[in-house]
Sequence to fold (153 residues):
Amino acid sequence: MINEKDFLYFDNSFGRIISEYIGLNDTIVEVPDTINRVKILEIGQGVFNSHKEIKEVIIPEGIEIISNFAFAGCSNLEKIFLPESIRRIGPYAIAGNDSLKHVVFNGTKKQWDAIVSQNKELGDVRIEFNHQSKLSDFLNECLDAEEIRKEEK
Fold:
């Protein structure tokens, strides 16, 4: 469950930035997409640094930036879900996370390659591309188009 009260934030000219995670003993953390109805743009520098209790992080669509050291030292972090909207992951964002075995990215390989080109440490992470929702949308569109063609005959 997402609890906005577990996060401190500040605003700049680009949007809202999470500055600190103050939740306690959560093994699964769902980052909110908004705080007080304002869209989150970025997970700030060192937000989850050394939170050893965290095993899984879910980052929602809309967040574009994960700053330097954001998850550094989260030594028990095993899995992270990244939205398609991510366009930059800062240096050492996942440093010291030897347990990280699984990254699920909702974007394309081309998008991931662009992110990795900015942060070489990500090149060694096992990545899974989650295209299921896009594929099912595409298949549903194809089925709808087929139904329209049948009706036209």
